[in-house]
Write a structure and sequence with these properties.
The protein is built from two helices and eight strands; from the N terminus they run βββββαββαβ. The strands form two sheets. Strands 3, 4, 5, 6, 7 and 8 form a six-stranded antiparallel β-sheet that branches. Strands 1-2 form a two-stranded antiparallel sheet. The chain is about 10% helix and about 30% strand. The longest helix has 11 residues. The protein is mainly beta.
């Protein structure tokens, strides 16, 4: 988790329910442009930020999740994402300068083209596993 971002941002740990990793489907309400919002430490956030209906939580969309959002929601322009549902899940990988940490990933639905993303960038899908347990599958399947 990156506490410097502040509590208004989604963190993978929020998908942990009763020690089991879950996924959540949310509706995109708005997309804020890069470098228009400051983080808790006062620096501008360099990536787009997605806001969702029925929650005050936001998701900072880095390069990998942006490519996944384009495939999942069917549009390269973020304005095309508004009003569409997207499923978020936790994946484990070596990110943020740490080993085997959880991060949020966007699920591309069945029947939709998956972008070319290195398996290392997708990580291992944690959905359905208990905290501390090895996942049975990886996100590339």
């Amino acid at each position: 988790m990156k506490p410097e971002l502040g509590p208004e941002y989604l963190h993978a740990e929020e998908l942990l329910k009763d020690e089991v990793w879950t996924e959540a489907t949310v509706i995109v309400e708005a997309v804020l442009a890069p470098n228009t919002v400051k983080s808790a430490d006062g620096t501008f956030i360099e990536n787009p930020i997605v806001c969702f209906q029925k929650t005050s939580k936001r998701l900072i969309v880095g390069k990998t999740n942006r490519r996944l959002m384009i495939c999942a929601l069917g549009g390269t322009k973020s304005d095309d994402w508004i009003g569409k549902p997207v499923t978020l899940y936790a994946a484990a990988g070596d990110w943020f300068g740490q080993k085997d940490v959880a991060a949020i990933r966007v699920r591309v639905g069945k029947g939709k083209a998956m972008p070319f993303i290195k398996p290392k960038s997708l990580g291992r899908d944690l959905t359905g596993t208990r905290q501390g347990q090895q996942p049975a599958k990886d996100a590339t399947k």
